[in-house]
């Protein structure tokens, strides 16, 4: 829209003139020192004029198209977030359990190579103070766990093995799922 068109549009003219008359009345009231009523009246008139202008405004088709497109976009975005929320499986909240000797915690993530939920950040907690322990494994000494807080140590043969814990977690989920299935 160029400048000339803009100043000539009925929108600009009527808002402009309404504003102008409002200012004029306010100025008049101020000079005569009996404001309020006339000012309030002219504000009401100004709002009425404004509404009238909006109602009579000739709509461009491309405005409607843009409005509809924006609306669809917003709906699509909301829908996407909703899907991501509902996509989380039942077992997503299953993140801790006590197996064999210790308490274990873990999180779930989707393995991007095949889109499968897998256990990640599997940690054994110290039986004395509940701090996540440091896991070490070496060919010479085998598997060991140390507590960084209370110096609890567990050597090969006294440790829960992470790969077995993982298996148990997955099996627990399978068992729960089978419980839910109606018997044939
Ligand atoms: Zn400890």
List keywords for this structure.
184 residues, alpha+beta, 2 domains, 5 helices, 52% helix, binds zinc ion
Could you walk me through the main structural features you see in this protein, from its secondary elements to its overall organization?
- There is one protein chain.
- By secondary structure, the chain is of the alpha+beta class.
- It has 2 domains: 3-85, no CATH class; 90-180, no CATH class.
- The chain has helices at 3-8, 10-32, 37-56, 61-87, 162-180, and strands at residues 96-99, 102-111, 116-125, 134-138, 142-146, 153-154.
- The strands form 2 sheets. It has a 3-stranded antiparallel beta sheet. The protein has a 3-stranded antiparallel beta sheet with strand order 4-5-6, with no helix packed on it.
- A hairpin with a 4-residue loop joins strand 2 and strand 3.
- The radius of gyration is 36 Å and the shape is elongated.
- Zinc ion binds at residues 126, 128-129, 131, 147, 149-150, 152.
- The site of zinc ion (ZN) has 8 residues, from loops.
